[in-house]
Amino acid sequence: MSTELSDLERIKAESRHLRGTLAEGLRDPVTNAISEDDNKLLKFHGSYLQDDRDLRDERRRQKLEPAYAFMLRARLPSGVLTPAQWLVFDRLAREYANGTLRITTRQTFQWHGIIKRHLKPTIAAIHEALATTIAACGDVVRNVVSTPNPVESEAHAQAYQWATYLSEELSPKTRAYHEIWLDGEPLVDEPKQEEPLYGTTYLPRKFKIGLAIPPLNDIDVFAQDLGLIAIIEAGELKGFNVAVGGGMGATHGDGSTYPRLASVMGFVTPDRVLAVAEAAVAVQRDWGNRSERKHARLKYTIDKHGLAAFKAEVEKRLGFALSPERAFHFDHNGDRYGWVEGSDGRWHLTLQIESGRLADVGERRWLTGLRELANVHQGDFRLTCNQNVIIANVAVDQRAHIDAIVAAHGLDGYRTDSGIRRHAVACVALPTCGLAMAESERYLPAILPKLEALLESHGLRDAPILLRLSGCPNGCSRPYLGEIALVGRGPGRYDLRLGADFRGQRLNRSYRENVDEAAILEALAPLFAGYAAERLQGEYFGDFLVRSGVIADQAKPVVDEVAA
Question: pTM for this one?
Answer without folding.
Answer: 0.95
